[in-house]
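User: Structure please.
Assistant: Input sequence and predicted structure:
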Amino acid sequence: MLEKDLDILIEYLRDDGFRRDETIKILYTLKAWQVLSKSVITTESLCFRSSMDKEYVINSFNSLAVEFQVFKLFNSTIELKKISNHSLEFVIEYINTTKNIFKLTDAIRYSLDKEYGYLVSAQLLEFSVKLADTSFSDIYTPFRNSFEIAYYTNQRVYAESYFDELSVEIIKIVDGLDIEFNHTNTLETPSYIADSQLREFDCSVSFPPFGQKTNKELFRNDSYNRFKVYQGKGSLDIAYFEHILLQTRRKAVILMPVGFTFRGGAEEKFREYLIEKNWLESIIQLPANLHSDTAIETTFFIINKYKSSDTVYFLNLRDKQFITKDGRKQVLNKLDNIIDLYKNKVEKKNISTVVLNSIIKQYNYSLSVDRYILSNEDIEFKKILNSYNKRPLKEIAEVRKSQLIQDEENGDFQLYEVSPSDFKAFDFILESGKQKNIKEQYQKYETYKLMPNDILISTKGTIGKVAIVGKIQKPLIASQNIHVIRIKDKSVIEPRVLYMFFKSNIGQRLLKQLSTGTTMPQITTKEINELAIPIIDKKKQQDIIEQFEYEIELYKEIEQLQHKINTIHHTLLED
């Protein structure tokens, strides 16, 4: 059924007071009845007919509900109460005359996404099955509409989720899919149990919900010993992942938000758990805008509990060669080529690489593809840095993330809060920023106040802007989007030298590599602390300080030229 036909039908039944979802439910239940009548229903008086009134349909459904779950779930007396015989005939005519009726889940995507929540695209379902390897005897698919992978495999699919049970029954009948489905809250009441333990499946494919609120009772009352890292705090992302791990014997393909690859705290501990277990086979970064109802960037985690190597394969599909536009959305192209890259663990410049677990450990178990897949420019910069001795920044400087100091109405102490927008392009930053008055927070100010030669780096939202503090004329603090770096021993590195390093192309690239996230990119304090800084000899440092001074002169010349240009514009028509 074409989109236009579906819209006509939905509009037609609206006159009988049916919502879009109710119309689709009636249409596809009748279609399932037609399919069953051709092969399974043996009683002639209960079969689908080309012409039927409402009374016949209701009576037939009530009789068939004894034997068939689909009619039991569809309460015909309630569902068909409003429909007129004329509208019913109109629906039946659509079924009889339309050869290529929409798959039910496609109809839901087209018309009812907001009713059902975020649904996984058909392409990602197909992709996930190809990643999973369908040689396994069974596939477990908890959460969302993961059961739809049954369209792309001959294996029996064992599914459980809160997805509409009637819809799944219709799909099984109309499309002949081999699905065993249980309607349940998978985390709270998992349904596939063997000997009082969660049943293991050879393979799992899943698309868990994102960012769901934590459930402390779930953690406290779990009788299946699922949670090794999740402790009833934060979001449920780790809990979903750990549930899948326990029900997977060999391989799992799990779609997670991209933030799960780099966020700290419990998620970092969970990534450490995966690496130490040596279960993580691959990370596949997907392009943005692949989903119709969420802008969240996503990543496939591929788990292999029988992995023999101590490496992880990283594949970045954000490159334009893998992306095609489909209206406003993006879709993947060359899907089979992507699968070949993954299966053969092919390393391609700027696209994919194999990384040792030990290297991932050095990067605090970050699984961000940008950390390991380097551009040509990155490689050249790395060669330059490797020609120097390097030390972690935490050894040569004190690194601190600024904290919020709020304005107080009765405050009698005045200070200025410096934001990245206040940073100068050159020279020292002096008095600037947003004025605040405080009283009760004075001790907090004493802890976080800025000092001369402090280096400021914007590390949230806008990444990589750099400033250096000059002579303090009025009290200054930095905003929460800034990390403050204070050199411990100026004999090791002069503050102006470190400032110029962070402003350089190499320094900016290093900061960009540390940046994670797209909606609100940020760099953690831990990452800044571990950043390897080249130790420069005294002569070279003096050269850089001279460049610092020369840059100031150049910018002043630019300002003078800009003033002359502005004068031309201002006096253009004057005598």
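Residues 560 and 566 are 10 Å apart (CA to CA).
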